[in-house]
Model the fold of this input.
Amino acid sequence: MRLGGVAAVALGGALIGLAPIAVRLSEVGPLATNLWRFLFALPILALWAARSAPTAKRDTFWLLAAGGLFALELNLWAIALTKTTVANATLLANTTPVFAAAFGWFVFKERLGAGVLLGGLCAMIGAVLLTLGRAQTGVGPAGAEQGLIGDGMGLAAAVGYAGYLLIVRSLGSRVSVGAVMFWAGVSSAALTFVLCLITGERLLPHSVQGWAILVGLGVFVQVGGQGLIAYGVGRLPIVISTVLLWTQPLAAAALSWLLFDEALGPIALIGAGLVLGGLYIVQRARAPVTQ
Done:
């Protein structure tokens, strides 16, 4: 196992775990916050993509479509943060492997073994317990009904991200990571801008601190976090990568506990454990066998 890959994925996951905290602290709405996250990242991603081989027009179209799904995922998740706890929104959005396994079965005809089914069942039971635990404790930025909507948005975000990964996987053998991140970022920014106009969210923060949060999201989270993960995942077994990426929801949950007093109650803790355990079982069952 390469220690560089381990450090990259763990650090990348921890950096992405800062995103929900930044969304909560941002001086603009969740959609506008994501818009600036994409815009501040694009110049750096453009330089990264320019160092790669040119992308075919057909592949560019699919990457733009993937970016639309990524924007859908990120914006649903960001709105969920305003309705439920950071831990719930982030953990539920990270159930992507379950939906990716289902899409793999439907599109690529991948066989769903007992491990995938068991892990998916564990993760879904855990998601239900997370929701019940949040309703029982009453923590979070909204009431019980809005919290339920937020939890649903977190799960819907996982579906969108699974679709994004499905497209990226189909293009992975001929498109560079830099090109994927740049073109997906272009369409993500465009779609998010349209959503901001439709919802009427204020686009400009009113202080230096507000701008600093948005710049940090673009540079450290979108470019740094995603870039480190892209580097490390290509150098590690998928099961190890998955476990290390749990630094994202764990870091988010810990920081939300400290900053927003969003402690996980006993039921929610059991649910979180089932979600993480279920994701591990799914990824282990889907991991390729190496000699």
About this structure: Residues 3-286 form one domain. The chain has one domain: 3-286.
